[in-house]
Amino acid sequence: MSLDRIDIEGTFNFRDIGGSPTSAGESSVGKGKVFRSDGIAQLTDRSRADIRALGISTVVDLRDVGERSKLPDALEGLDVEHIELPIFDDHFFPEKQLSREEMQKAAEATGMDLSDRSLSKIYELMISHFGTRLAKAIDVVAQSCEGGVVFHCSAGKDRTGMVAAFILALLGVGRHEILEDYAITSQHLSGGFLENIIRNFADAGISGNLAETATAAPPELMAKILDSIDAEYGENGVEAYLLEHGMDPASPDKLREQLLTSADREEAVRD
Questions:
Q1: What is the pTM (predicted TM-score) of this model?
Q2: How far, in Å, CA of 142 to CA of 30, rounded?
């Protein structure tokens, strides 16, 4: 599994999702096509050159408008398709910070209590209210992965982590490897990221327990989410969940066709 971060200046958690074997052991997820990252608002000329060298032609921004407007992706000079696909559908971090009264009205109208920014609540809301957005993200990655794609949010661990976990599950990667890929984020964000993200979040009007929500990636939380999906939807729970929420039925096969590499082929490439 490719758990090491890629040294892209201005980022802390830029990684290739490839490298994991499938549960069957007959293939693995190929590298060099699908990448995940934290925010890319502070890219430099050097890091843009590095992204160009990776062959990335599509950038998918999973953040809400309140995050994007304060910290837009720094893609100047890159020939990429830039797709804004807010997983929280601009509800969690709206363009204008809501007052307590406005948040209460929004909760009554939508059934979402947005005042609770704990990790468990964030994931619960993501799965219960934004399945259509997660399904759309999977479709976009499936359509873009042949030409190289990176998807990202602010920390590259919750929205990005869920999309990555779903992609790996659709590719047949085992639970242990999925959780390992998710949890490694905590190590990558343990350096200067917290100070940086607290400043960025403050600029965007975002408050809360940032030490936890910005850097923690407890594997038991992701395991709980995946277990709950399997319990409700069956053995192929992630695929069934995404299909129910509007994923293109062709997307899993597109991902497998583009990203799975046989062991024999990998050996031939190394030789």
A1: 0.86
A2: 14
